[in-house]
């Protein structure tokens, strides 16, 4: 709860743009009939389907907002539970486990190269997968390999990349540490494969769709250097996260030098992850073998960071400040219950969060709405259900809040060459910008500026344009349908 409170619970924005429209359409089949993303989504089965099925089932009882919040809290609980036990298993000290969690999940949040975290502030398929995968990793640490394999397989159904990367590391680690007892390795991989079979069938179907050479080259460039540039290639990672990771690695090397005879199994797992990340970086950034990018190996970086931090905290526990009597006698459980209850109330009612910086991180469940959110609600209630509306490409909450179609959606993507080809050409058509002519860190802002500066050639299916009055330079050329604050809906 404290994690969500401090980092800000997010709903109906960001990654929900490619998760929740499918949920709303299952609940109301009349929605998004002219939406580009939803139209392409229905062309073939994707790995999002298990997430959608689960969310729809809970949404029928709790509503979409309530279902997302409840499921996210449950998933986050199991992620934290798993890492609490992993920290205790590694260190053998309950104090280390208690101290490691806030350092890993609050202090080191958003510090991993590749833009990945052990837990996120928004409920997506990765949240469900993370709960199963990290519980599976916990059971692996206790040598309960079959339970671990089952949980990993289920996690793979919801988010294949995370589960596949962890399973690869476990497979190598288990092969090395099991010596000649390869039955354990075979049983683990077999049980994982059986439970993850649905996702592999979906992936196999997608990967075996034929695309010509031009499709593949365009797809590689758009996905790895633009749409998801912060996740795939090392040279695109933020300098802050790379520096933090480098410092941790140096501290880890110092730790190995000083405590090289201890915790050999944990050290081996970390070394394997490091070797994997180095190999991935060489293959993708140096040799430009973009096929390897699909593995998104840096999903393992947060796990390596967590393991290293646990080891460092454990080594620091030998010093005086960890052994003071106050830590032992202080009613820590009562304190945690109090923090949990207060955090839960503030997450449900974020308008009462007194710190503005933290309050601004929360989105989607406040009573105090922005002008844009009010306009989204007005659009949902007053425009035809089949209406298609062009918006600022950086408006990531429109589809979830307005429940209307868009001719193009910058955030919501399907990772196939065919989709990216159409997505790329629609961006040029709707916004008049060829994103390949700009740096990957700039193209989103350039698209947004162009949207407000010039009325580009739009598809015939566009019915309205949603703008901000203080930025739009062509408002006088189109009739205004509705204005709320500094936001206007224009008839196209």
Can you describe this structure?
With 492 residues, the protein is mainly α. The protein contains 22 helices and 4 strands. The chain has helices at residues 2-7, 20-27, 36-41, 49-91, 94-107, 125-141, 145-158, 160-177, 182-195, 197-207, 213-227, 229-232, 239-258, 264-286, 301-316, 325-329, 332-348, 356-359, 371-382, 398-402, 417-431, 443-453; strands at 389-390, 464-468, 480-484, 487-491. It has a 4-stranded mixed sheet with strand order 1-2-4-3. Helix 14 runs antiparallel to helix 15 (301-316). The protein starts with a helix and ends with a strand. The model has no long low-confidence stretch (mean pLDDT 86).
Offer a few descriptive terms:
mainly alpha; four-stranded mixed β-sheet; 4 strands
Question: TL;DR?
Answer:
61% of the residues lie in helices and 3% in strands. It is mainly alpha-helical and 492 residues long.
Mean pLDDT: 86
* Beta fraction: under 5%
Major sheet: size, sense and barrel closure? 4 strands, mixed
* Count of individual helical segments: 22
Kindly state the percentage of residues in helix.
Answer: 55-70%
- In N-to-C order, the SSE pattern is HHHHHHHHHHHHHHHHHHHEHHHEEE
The strand line-up of the biggest sheet is 1-2-4-3
Radius of gyration: 24 Å
* Gross geometry: globular
Low-confidence stretches: none
Structure class: mainly alpha
Our measurement of the CA-to-CA distance between the termini, rounded to an integer number of angstroms, reads 45 Å
Q: How many individual β-strands? A: 4
